[in-house]
Design brief:
The complex is a heterodimer of chains A (about 270) and B (about 240). Chain A has about 270 residues and is an all-alpha fold. Chain A is about 75% helix and about 0% strand. Chain A contains 10 helices and no strands. Chain A has helices at about 5-25, 35-50, 70-80, 80-105, 110-130, 135-145, 150-175, 180-205, 210-230, 245-270. In chain A, helix 4 packs parallel to helix 7 (about 150-175) and helix 5 (about 110-130) packs antiparallel against helix 7. Chain B has a single domain, classed as P-loop containing nucleotide triphosphate hydrolases (Rossmann fold). In chain B, strand 9 and strand 10 form a beta hairpin. In chain B, helix 3 (about 100-110) packs across helix 4. Chain B is globular, with a radius of gyration of 18 Å. Classes of the chains: A mainly alpha (about 270), B alpha/beta (about 240). Chains A and B meet through helix 1, helix 2, helix 3 and helix 6 of A and helix 3, helix 4, helix 7 and strand 10 of B. Chain B: Keywords: ATP-binding, Nucleotide-binding, Transport. Chain B: This is ABC-2 type transport system ATP-binding protein. Chain B: One of its GO terms (molecular function) is ATP hydrolysis activity.
């Protein structure tokens, strides 16, 4: 920053700055208006000046500490009704398809695993869509919210995960051919939670491209692992010995990842 | 509004190894401040740091306001957010949302009470150019229309501090007048910091900061009655 000095040197500095900036400022050339355009514009500007549009004044007391209900409402609209309906439609489609095939072609046990594969794929894609990259401006605006970014993101994750879970429950009980029951509910809930969390945490850490690739690799790997290495597969039958330990480890890993993300996010915001 | 100030204490910015802003000291005060400079001068980075959500590479940016006891109190950046409006250089909104839905979303995130959101939105949608956008999806808006929504989202909660990154790009003269009137009202009572590279945007008396290659090379007062840059510096700060 320059300043001070004699009047002459300041004068010179101004001249120099003026020359420099004259050529740099964007020139603005207005189109030549017709007399009618000019009269019309004057009338509109006059009207606006005489009757200023008064916006509803918001006093600082009208601001409130954001409540959870408001945050949930806002995040519901963020995902968009069309997206909610599309994921519901997709779930109905594959559930009916698998249900129909399980009666005729696919063995009952296999049908359940097929269905879990489809549900977990749905959650991976839903999370990828929900947390798709935004431009920098929008990311800045999100951070200017009265809600912390951690709270916004967490609620968004819970809503998408919760919606898919609630939507899948009736199908897991009523689709013919599936091993309907509480144990089956447990069998698919843990993989759904696990895939949602790893897709989300990796997206937050390394970006959506990397997250989606790795999540789909793990998802695909599960399919092969259930035949070759069932000890590490989430898609095994409930009667397998490895079922409970694998489910438990997955649950713990998912909670640890989620906890670590939340703590690091809060620390960054503080 | 409680006489806000933003203290820029030798803050600098480095992005992927490239120096964007060199450290300098400045105090942004009540009223209008124009930030001008070439592309790449560091205007947008400066404004981002002024929002308080981006930390400087070095130095400090902090907010103070007059306390009830008469002195100045420092306000944490997190608390300032509810008093701050910001229009980024690139504003798109969320493509899947309709304009009204988006503004309702923003109002919640500005911390406005749910019971007054509809009233606030109605008052904005009374203006013909905004009424036409109400049911449109954000992804279907033109650049100028996006800019208008971007300005409304920043003004919605009548912020005390308004930070605008080239806000009038793509707006016609009538729309500029409409938004300038709102911005001026905020500048009279609070603080407005606006970057621009168009002289006709400088329509109010206030402070002018010129950035060049990440340095604050000059600061002074604008004098709207004058004709050219010399007048802007007629009362330059020494």
């Amino acid at each position: 920053m320059r300043g001070g000095g004699s009047v002459k040197s300041e004068r010179e500095e101004l001249d120099e700055l003026e020359k420099k900036w004259m050529s740099r400022m964007t020139s603005f050339t207005t189109p030549v208006p017709t007399p009618e355009d000019t009269l019309d514009l004057i009338a509109r500007v006059k009207e606006q000046a005489q009757k200023p549009e008064k916006q509803a004044e918001v006093a600082p007391s009208d601001h409130q500490t954001g409540g959870w209900m408001d945050l949930i409402i806002s995040q519901w609209s963020f995902y968009g009704m069309r997206s909610w309906l599309m994921s519901a439609g997709w779930m109905i489609c594959f559930s009916l398809m698998i249900g129909a095939q399980s009666i005729t072609i696919v063995p009952k046990d296999e049908a359940g695993v097929f269905w879990i594969q489809a549900v977990t794929l749905t959650i991976v894609l839903s999370i990828a869509y929900t947390f798709r990259p935004q431009n920098e401006g929008m990311a800045m605006l999100e951070r200017l919210s009265v809600y912390s970014l951690a709270a916004q993101t967490f609620v968004r994750l819970c809503m998408v995960m919760g919606f898919q879970w609630i939507l899948a429950i009736p199908f897991s009980f009523v689709i013919p051919g599936l091993d309907n029951g509480w144990l089956f509910l447990w069998q698919w809930t843990i993989p759904l939670f696990f895939f949602a969390v790893i897709t989300f945490v990796m997206a937050e850490r390394w970006g959506m491209g990397a997250s989606l690739s790795v999540s789909l690799m793990i998802w695909g790997g599960q399919w092969f692992a259930r035949k070759v290495l069932p000890e590490v597969s989430l898609m095994v039958q409930t009667e397998e010995l490895s079922f409970r330990p694998v489910q438990l480890v997955s649950l713990v890993v998912a909670f640890l990842l989620l906890g670590a993300w939340y703590i690091s996010q809060r620390r960054r915001e503080i | 509004m409680k006489d806000w100030q933003i203290h820029w204490e030798d803050a600098g910015a480095v992005l992927t190894g490239t120096r964007i802003l060199h450290p300098f000291r400045h105090r942004f005060s009540q009223g209008m401040t124009y930030v001008v400079g070439n592309n790449g001068a560091g205007k947008s980075t400066l404004l981002k740091l002024l929002t308080g959500v981006v930390s400087p590479f070095e130095g400090d940016v902090h907010f103070t306001r007059r306390s009830s006891k008469g002195g100045r109190e420092e306000i944490p950046a997190r608390e300032v957010r509810r008093f701050l409006g910001y229009v980024p250089q690139v504003f798109t909104g969320y493509p899947q949302m309709r304009v009204e839905q988006y503004l309702r979303f923003v109002a919640i995130h500005h911390g406005l009470a749910r019971c007054i959101i509809s009233e606030v939105l109605e008052s904005w949608f009374r203006h013909p150019t905004l009424a036409a956008l109400r049911k449109k999806r954000m992804k279907g808006l033109s650049g100028g229309e996006q800019r208008k929504v971007g300005l409304v989202q920043a003004l919605l909660h009548h912020p005390h501090i308004l930070i605008l990154d080239e806000p009038f790009v793509g707006l016609d003269i009538e729309e500029r007048l409409f938004f300038q009137a709102h911005i001026q009202r905020i500048a009279h009572r609070g603080m407005v910091i606006m970057s621009t590279h168009q002289l006709e945007d400088i329509s109010m008396e206030g402070t002018l900061c010129i950035l060049e290659e990440g340095n604050l090379i000059h600061q002074g007062f604008t004098k709207v009655k004058g004709t050219w840059l010399e007048d802007f510096f007629a009362a330059s700060v020494k």
